[in-house]
Amino acid sequence: MIEQLNRDRVGVSIKDAVKSYGIFRALDNVSLDVAPGEFVSILGPSGSGKTTLLGLLGGFVQPTSGSIWLGDRDITFEPPHKRDIGIVFQSYALFPHMSVGENITFPLRARRLPKSTWPDKLKAALDMVELSGYENRRIHELSGGQRQRVALARAMIFEPGLILMDEPLSALDKQLRETMQIELKRLHHRLGATIVYVTHDQREALTMSDRVAIMHKGRLVQVDTPERLHDHPANAFVARFIGEATLLPVRRQNDTDVLLGDQVLKMAHRVPDAGSLHLVVHAEKLFVAEGSQAEGCNRLAGTVTDTLYQGESIRVFVRLDSGGDLSFRLASNHAGRALLKAPGETIALALHPEDTVIVPEAD
Ligand code: ADP
Ligand code: MG
């Protein structure tokens, strides 16, 4: 079964899709190409259009304009059951009156596959989600995590090349969610199926995905690898949404310099030519400006306002002389403590030009 899945994997594309409800545009000219075998997450706040986008792929939502492609097949007007796409929702949507086995084999029944093929497929699907021996259990006898695995097995038993998931782990508690994230990632590696995964949890999206598509108000703002999204956000919305960043207003001086207050900061990358600009400071990019390591770096001088012991690190809050507040971390070891200042003391921080990121305001 697993080898067959590899053979059938397929890419999916959305081309210039618009979805309007009356005068409201839930999707505003969205285009997305997902490569065969790729794991792409759709990440955005509630109401940004994630479920609507997934609905286009699954066939539950008809686009007002634009088209949907499965490989080189135009499926824009194909009904859901003809698309052969596995779907897992946030609520498990299992049939409560059926056993685990009956739930999982339901897609085989719906597709009228010969009954003689069912036992092998059921066994493989149960093995895959580590529920062997559970086929005769009732749904109400299972934990939340087990139910979600039944839903996964049901989505995969008919060997779809594309699996869609809409916040499948959001109903689970934190520990189980993390376990399931690892299991899903492992399954993806083993099966090689194409996965489009909706979540509003940025950590989940960053740790699981090959690429993440950031949605905001019905548009895809940036589609990129987790590293690129974190280090090179396209605008202030992405920068605020990803990671632990402080945004400080800056003014453009020329192609490589910006002004923070009246202080010049050097950039390794070209400064965007936009009206309203922000410096994006990630806590982990800042370090105390001492010694040769800080040569050629931008310096941010300020006063320590607070220190917070957080176990593995000490978080230090700083008010900058140029205006604005930010924080950075020191390792809670001997070297880190040697650099620690008390509230009220002055401190100089360094930021490498490569790590000095400027973004335009979002529209
Ligand atoms: P998300 O999944 O990101 O939370 P949705 O895709 O569910 O967002 O919804 C995007 C926007 O479209 C929301 O403002 C929602 O109210 C609106 N919307 C979704 N479905 C309908 C519908 N059937 N009729 C009218 N508005 C809808
Ligand atoms: Mg949703």
Topology summary:
Elements: H1 2-8, E1 12-21, E2 24-34, E3 39-43, H2 50-58, E4 65-70, E5 73-74, E6 85-88, H3 100-110, H4 118-128, H5 144-156, E7 162-166, H6 174-191, E8 194-199, H7 202-208, E9 211-216, E10 219-224, H8 226-231, H9 236-241, E11 245-252, E12 257-260, E13 263-266, E14 277-282, E15 287-288, E16 298-309, E17 313-320, E18 325-331, H10 334-339, E19 346-351, E20 357-360
Helix pairs in contact: 3-4, 3-5
Written account of the structure:
The protein is 26% helix and 34% strand. With 363 residues, it is an alpha+beta fold. It contains ten helices and 20 strands. A six-stranded mixed beta sheet has the order 6-7-8-3-9-10, with helices on both faces. A five-stranded antiparallel beta sheet has the order 13-12-11-14-20. It has two domains: 2-229, Rossmann fold (3-Layer(aba) Sandwich); 245-360, RNA polymerase II/Efflux pump adaptor protein, barrel-sandwich hybrid domain (OB fold (Dihydrolipoamide Acetyltransferase, E2P), Beta Barrel), CATH 2.40.50.
